User: Which sequence fits this backbone?
């Protein structure tokens, strides 16, 4: 009797389970679009289906019963843009809707750049506490490792062997937790005094973990040849991919030489060195006044005159932050020099001295001064952008440089032409960026890839941010999806925050 009861129960359970409909995730069909898949291939008409956080079908698709349908109205559907060199995290945590990134089509940001980073655990905790509308990946910063091992007051010297060992152990730990690799900011003071041997030792740790190296090289002007040699040698000796951050020519006498620099990088690639670069589409940078003194001799008038003559244009370079005297903010260095009745070179030295004194009296204050410096040519920028191994970045945040709101839409609106078609520009923002930093399953339109997407109108896409209005929203970015959820539509946030922490896949 028990046998027959048990048999009946099993049969009933089987029939009940068999008769129940499987649970299907809600799907979204985006139709009537020009698909640009991120690989450089020509656009094609079609549709794309999202289920959950993935792309599940692409092609000539028919709507399913109950499916949400979005009419793309003939616009371009592309992979979401990957900002391979970003400083947006602070603003994104303050404003989790991430308008600064979403409004230009960015769906993933890579932080930890220029040698400055949070630990992977810190980032994880921050994103758990404050979910955001953009994906985040990070490198581990050399300067951060340096100051942890050497102390905040000892960064202006070469590291000792025991300190390098401590840095190596800390880097290994971060790589084990998903860091993309090692980043350096060798032009900045607390890394400038590191030896080549120190940097190489840490790079070898990254290479042993099958990670990557990205660098704001030691010089983008006076000693750029030596700086390029250093990163090429790191790539050669470690065998791992190396990337130059925000490639530029900042010395006036070097202007027009971009093709020669690219020929040098191509030669390195022919020798088996996997060297690449990223670049932002502006002729002016954003940093501190102190970087204008390559010898770190801030009271040397000859060095100040070299800066004025060769390294930036005081008539087109704006002091965008100056805590000791906010009335200087928004003025050019030339305008400030005239107010002070000084030569620009003297004013440059005086501003640095005033800022240093202010910092000593206010040690808890953060940034004291910042400049948006004009020191590049449009011709060089265009040559760097169109190199087949350069991806687009912003190097920005929601601050005073317009690149924080406009870098990607600026490329789409001002650099696309017959020589650099839209499909190629989008490739430099998507699959190429993903490959250069080691992000998997993003940056392409493909079945099984994550549904990070941007719908854009190529006829109207354009940046509008300027130095005077750096937070102006771009036009032409119609919709943005992150992990299958729409985060941006017609200049507004959806209030959804589906961003994820992206970590390096362990080989």
Assistant:
């Amino acid at each position: 009797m028990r046998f027959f009861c048990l048999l009946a129960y099993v049969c009933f359970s089987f029939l009940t389970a068999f008769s129940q409909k499987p649970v299907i995730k809600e799907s979204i069909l985006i139709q009537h679009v020009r698909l640009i898949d991120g690989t450089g291939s020509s656009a094609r008409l079609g549709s794309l289906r999202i289920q959950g956080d993935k792309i599940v079908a692409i092609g000539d698709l028919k709507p399913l019963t109950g499916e949400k349908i979005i009419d793309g109205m003939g616009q371009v559907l592309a992979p979401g843009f990957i900002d391979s060199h970003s400083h947006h995290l602070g603003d994104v945590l303050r404003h989790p809707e991430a308008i600064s990134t979403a409004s230009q089509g960015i769906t993933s940001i890579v932080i930890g750049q220029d040698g400055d980073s949070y630990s992977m655990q810190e980032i994880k905790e921050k994103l758990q506490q404050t979910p955001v509308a953009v994906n985040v990946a990070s490198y581990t910063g050399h300067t951060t490792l340096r100051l942890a091992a050497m102390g905040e007051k000892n960064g202006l010297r070469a590291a000792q062997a025991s300190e390098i060992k401590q840095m190596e152990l800390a880097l290994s730990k971060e790589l084990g937790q998903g860091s993309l690799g090692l980043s350096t900011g060798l032009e900045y003071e607390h890394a400038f005094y590191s030896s080549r041997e120190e940097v190489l030792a840490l790079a070898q740790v990254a290479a042993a973990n099958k990670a990557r190296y990205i660098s704001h090289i030691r010089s983008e002007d006076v000693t750029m040849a030596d700086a390029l040699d250093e990163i090429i040698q790191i790539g050669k000796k470690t065998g791992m991919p190396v990337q130059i951050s925000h490639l530029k020519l900042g010395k006036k006498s070097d202007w027009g030489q971009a093709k020669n620099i690219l020929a040098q990088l191509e030669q390195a690639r022919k020798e088996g060195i996997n060297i690449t670069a990223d670049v932002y589409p502006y002729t002016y940078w954003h940093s501190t006044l102190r970087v204008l003194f390559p010898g770190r001799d801030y009271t040397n008038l000859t060095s100040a005159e070299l800066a004025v003559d060769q390294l930036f244009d005081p008539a087109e370079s704006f002091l965008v932050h100056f805590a000791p005297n906010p009335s200087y903010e928004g003025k050019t260095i030339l305008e400030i020099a005239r107010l002070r009745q000084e030569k620009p070179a003297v004013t440059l030295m005086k501003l640095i001295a005033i800022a240093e004194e202010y910092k000593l009296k206010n040690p808890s204050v953060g940034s004291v001064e910042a400049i948006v410096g004009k020191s590049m040519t449009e011709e060089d920028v265009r040559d760097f952008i169109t190199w087949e191994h350069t991806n687009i970045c912003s190097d920005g945040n929601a601050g005073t440089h317009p690149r924080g709101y406009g870098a990607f839409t600026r490329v789409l609106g001002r650099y696309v032409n017959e020589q650099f078609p839209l499909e190629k520009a989008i490739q430099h923002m998507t699959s190429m960026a993903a490959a250069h930093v080691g992000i998997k399953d993003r940056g392409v339109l493909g079945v099984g890839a994550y549904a990070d997407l941007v719908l854009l109108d190529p006829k109207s896409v354009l940046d509008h941010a300027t130095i005077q209005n750096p937070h102006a929203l771009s036009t032409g970015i119609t919709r943005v999806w992150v992990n299958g959820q729409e985060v941006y539509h017609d200049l507004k946030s959806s209030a959804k925050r589906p961003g994820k922490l992206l970590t390096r896949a362990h080989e």
